[in-house]
Amino acid sequence: METSTEGAAADGGGSAPVTAPVADEYPAGAGGAAAGGEAAEPAAAPARARASLSPSRASDFMQCPLLYRFRVIDRLPEKPSAAATKGTLVHAVLERLFDAPAAERTAPRAKSLIPGQWDRLRESRPEVVELFADDPEGERLAAWLGEAEQLVERWFGLEDPTRLEPAERELFVEAELESGLRLRGIIDRVDVAPTGEVRIVDYKTGKAPRPEYAEGALFQMKFYALVVWRLKGVVPRRLQLVYLGSGDVLTYDPLLADLERVERKLLALWEAIRQATETGEWRPRPTKLCGWCDHRAHCPEFGGTPPPYPLPLRAAEGDAAGAVPR
After folding, report:
1. 52: Cβ contacts below 8 Å, ≥ 6 apart
2. pLDDT band for position 1 (50/70/90)?
3. CB of 72 within 8 A of CB of 41?
4. Rounded to the nearest 5 degrees, what angle is found at the Cα of 306, between the Cα atoms of 301 and 309?
5. How far apart are the C-alpha atoms of 238 and 225, rounded to whole Å?
6. Please, how many CA atoms are within 13 Å of residue 102, restricted to the half-sphere of its CB?
7. Model confidence pLDDT, tens digit, residues 115-173
8. Do the Cβ atoms of 14 and 311 come closer than 8 Å?
9. Cα(297)–Cα(79) distance, rounded to whole angstroms?
10. Residues 227, 159, 197, 230, Cα dihedral to 10°
11. What's the whole-number mean pLDDT along residues 277-281?
12. Which residues lie within the region annotated Disordered (predicted)?
C-alpha cells in the first residue's frame, strides 16, 4: 500500500500520492536528510546517503519533479486528507480481519473493527484528529465512518475472505538492483497457491480508472512484482487491484519482459532524479492534479517561491573541487 485517494484524483487516474516519503530516497552522493521521519543526515556526510525508491516517490517524480523535491528533499508538511485517512483505516480493517478464523470473517465483524482501528490510527497519527476539529457534534465524523463501512462491506462482494489464507499482509519488501538502487514498498496482500503461484493484491478505496489510465494504475503493481522477482526469482502469476470505490477488480498477468521494462524505466527515472538533485533543477509539471497539491504556495506555477535549496549543487564542469561525491 502506497497511497489511497478518492474523487477526481482517485487511485487509478494519476493521483498524487499522499503518504510520507519512504526513508533514504536521495540519490547516492546527494547528501541531505533521510525522508520519512528519520533523523536528518548531515549534508557534510553524503557518502552515507542511500539510493532507494518507492512506488509513491517514483509516481511523484513522474507526475511533477517539483512535487518530489518538496516531499523528499524539502520535506514540506502536508495536511492530513480525509480520503487518504479513510483509505488507511479501511486497509487496517481488512488486514486485521484475517486474524480471525475463516468462518468468522464476515462483513459485520469487519465493520465492527472500524471504531477500534480508528482509535489506533488517532493514537499513532494524532494529526488526523484535525480532520474533524470543526465537528463538535461528530456528525461529519459519523458520516465519514459510515463511508468507511460501505467500502469495507463492498469488498465482500468482490472477494470471499473465508476462502483466502494470505501468505503475507502489509508486507515490506526491498530489493537491490545491480546498479545499487534499492526498490522498496509495502504490499497489501500476497496470496500463494498450493502450486506455488504468487498473486499480489492491492486495495484501492477510490474508483477504477478509465481504460486509458489503466497502465498508470498498474505501475505500482509492476513495481512490486519486480521487487518480488528480484528477491525470490519468481514472476508473480497475477497482479490484482481491488477498487472498493467502484466495486471493480483489475487484474494483470505479468511476463518477465514486463518486469525487465519496468526495471529499465526505474533506472532511467533514478538517473533523472540524480541529475535534478545535483543541479537543483526541479521543474514543475502542471496538471489537473495541482488542485489537490498542498504546496501551491511554494510553486512558481502559482506565483510561489520554493524554499532555499538545502543540498550542495554540482559545480561547473571542470571544477572537481565542488563536485558532489558519488
Report:
1. 22, 23, 24, 25, 174, 181, 182, 183, 184
2. low
3. no
4. 140
5. 9
6. 8
7. 999 999 999 999 999 999 999 999 999 999 999 999 999 999 999 999 999 999 999 99
8. no
9. 14
10. 0
11. 96
12. 1-37
Half-sphere exposure of residue 8: CA atoms within 13 angstroms, side-chain side: 7
Higher pLDDT, 262 or 49: 262
DSSP state of 195: T
- Phi, psi angles (nearest 5°) of residue 28: -55, 130
Check whether 2 has a pLDDT greater than 50.
no
- Report pTM: 0.82
Q: How is residue 39 written as a grid cell?
A: 533523523
d(CA 150, CA 111): 9
| Residue 315 pLDDT level (bands cut at 50, 70, 90) | low
Please state the rounded mean pLDDT for residues 283-288.
Answer: 96
d(CA 47, CA 49): 6
What is d(CA 320, CA 314) in angstroms, rounded to the nearest whole number?
9
Query: What secondary structure, in 3-state letters, does 201-238 show?
Result: EEEECCCCCCHHHHHHHHHHHHHHHHHHHHHHCCCCCE
| DSSP string for residues in 249-260 | EEEE---HHHHH
Mean pLDDT of the chain: 85
Q: Which three cell numbers stand for residue 324?
A: 558532489
